[in-house]
Amino acid sequence: MRILVAVKRVIDYAAKIRVKADGSGVETKSVKMSLNPFCEIAVEEAVRLKEAGVASEVVAVSIGPKQSQDTLRTAMAMGADRATLIETDGDVQPLAVAKLLAAVCKTEEPSMVLLGKQAIDGDNNQTAQMLSALMRWPQATFASEVVLENEGKTALVTREIDGGLETLKMSLPAVISADLRLNEPRYATLPNIMKAKKKPLAKLSPTELGVDIASKIKTLKVEPPSVREAGIKVASVDELCEKLKNEAKVI
Amino acid sequence: MDPKVRQLYKKLIWVGRDYPSGISALREKMKAVFQKSAASEESFARGEFVYKELEALVYLHKYRSIRKRYDSGEPVKE
Predict the structure, then answer these.
(1) Cα B16 to Cα B5: distance, rounded to the nearest angstrom
(2) B70 touching A (Cβ < 8 Å)
(3) Do A184 and B71 touch (CB under 8 A)?
(4) A57 band by pLDDT with thresholds 50, 70 and 90
(5) What pTM, to 2 d.p., does this model score?
(6) Which of A45, A46, A142, A165 is the most buried (most CB within 10 A)?
(7) For A180, which of B11, B15, B70 is closest by C-beta distance?
(8) Scanning every residue of chain B, which has its alpha carbon at the shortest distance from the alpha carbon of A181?
(9) ipTM of the complex
(10) What are the domain boundaries of chain B?
(11) H-assigned helices in A91-135
């Protein structure tokens, strides 16, 4: 059984986000980039299924610039067997990503596609759903537990929904997107990163897969949130009351 | 230099890159401790301990930040 894991290179969760001066997007030059935390959880789940003897191979796929290789190396250091990079320039919309992943699914024929529920940069939360529709496979989003049954023919997926848990049963192949509490991802240690450099990494281009990745959406403007104004100190209770009455008009 | 010392330092620097407040302050501290300590079994054991603590701290900080941003709710219990 083969598991395909899609990973994305995003701005590190701890990095400070700066908007470009021309408002065309977010500054990514000289900003720390890393593997999307939700994708990390998806990789971990796939590796655990492999370690449990259910899966035989874990393939990591990333769509992005050349530097996404590092992200794939991290995924391989965590335990993925091989990786495929689909090289693109600039922003790729979720629909294009889903189409590219669908093309990869057709050649790799995985029994399960694991993705993070969303990337922490675009926060779109669309790719898994779109991929499942394109492949006409069942989908389970926001998974908090994945159990395989019937010798890997069906999957029981628990998802966190408002006010409770929902358990879905589905036949494989299926598309599953990982929520935060699915597992605790392991750390990609230095020796494992070194070992991952020996693992095979294939490169593809969108034209080779026959997918048009031209964006259908135009970003008009990106703005940072307004800065909170500084407060003031008052000398006495009377002054505070006066300001609350006359300036803030709350009492 | 004992190769184990170099290996330990490399390991710590590697995990230190993901240290929440940045690696520079951590590197200075680590350098001082490395210069002060003798390459003994005890030092290696402590180094390993610090490494594990750092790994746990990096994970916990990431988990907490993501949780704060994406789900403020309590984990659902069965």
Answers:
(1) 16
(2) yes
(3) no
(4) very high
(5) 0.86
(6) A46
(7) B70
(8) B75
(9) 0.81
(10) 3-68
(11) 94-108, 127-135
